[in-house]
Task: structure prediction
Amino acid sequence: MSGRHGRTWTSPLRVRRAPAWERQAPTWREARPALIAGALERAAARPSGNWYVVGASREVGARERPYGRTVAGTEVVVWRAGDGSLRAGPGVCPHLGAPLRDSRVVCGTLLCHWHGLALDGGPRAGWEPYPVHDDGVLVWVRLDAAGGGPALERPVVPVRPGAGGAVDAVFTAVGRCEPEDVVANRLDPWHGSWFHPYAFVGLKVVGTPDDDGDDGFAVEVSFKVAGRLVVPVRAVFTAPEPRTVVMHITDGEGAGSVVETHATPLTARGAAEPVSYTHLARAAAPVLRPLMRRTAGRLWRDDLAYAERRWSLRSSGRFPG
Ligand code: FES
Ligand SMILES: [Fe+2]
Result:
């Protein structure tokens, strides 16, 4: 078939003759706990600037309803001002404590539904706004008291492919674990085709932080499309900040696609649960889009089960290694 540019068009799809699930090569020898723990430690040491993902920009988009969530033990309310920009602050009304998430936004002003106190987003007695950032897909709030580290002007937002034509799928779930368990799961790429055989086949880790120096895990893997049809890609996993892991597809069809995982603690530090778990997938290649949507729910639920299991073992002193 001749392509738009006169070149021969090659389908990104391949027919894969994969071995049966039980016959694939075991990965546990390479998936050394110390290697994963080291990557996790380095991620934890990176600055977050005290920024936390609170939700998808779309969810915070409704003009009349504020968006509320407890993050790291702090009740937060977010809403849009008249010009569409975001306002954020404590979710507790400074008068008698009404939950501001249930209040109303009128012409960009948050109006408490108990006695009508008006908040325009600026500071007032008993209510100091929080810095808030809309990166186009996700909304972040900066909580300096909860974060406890040096503040950054902006969150560490992963580099994403341009939005033009790309599809963003945001999946959020809540589980019982700490953010580090979510990050540890994503820094173990070896479980891919064993634990998610419905999505991946033939996953091979071809680069680890030990040998490439840039602190990423590189994998070669085929995404299952339908039947024996697959899309082979190469991807790199990195943790740019303590609660984020990014998978960039670097080669093959879909190069430039990205899957981000953000773990947001809902309870205060040490309380150990629950955590909110947000995945964002931006598929640059049309062939990957339905795939990313279809498998995402199951994939993320299984990964959350992994993270919860890790936390349950850690918190009871039963984690191996
Ligand atoms: S509690 Fe909000 S105005 Fe009274
Ligand atoms: Fe996984």
About this structure: The first strand starts at residue 14 and ends at 15. The CA atoms of residues 314 and 320 lie 9 Å apart.
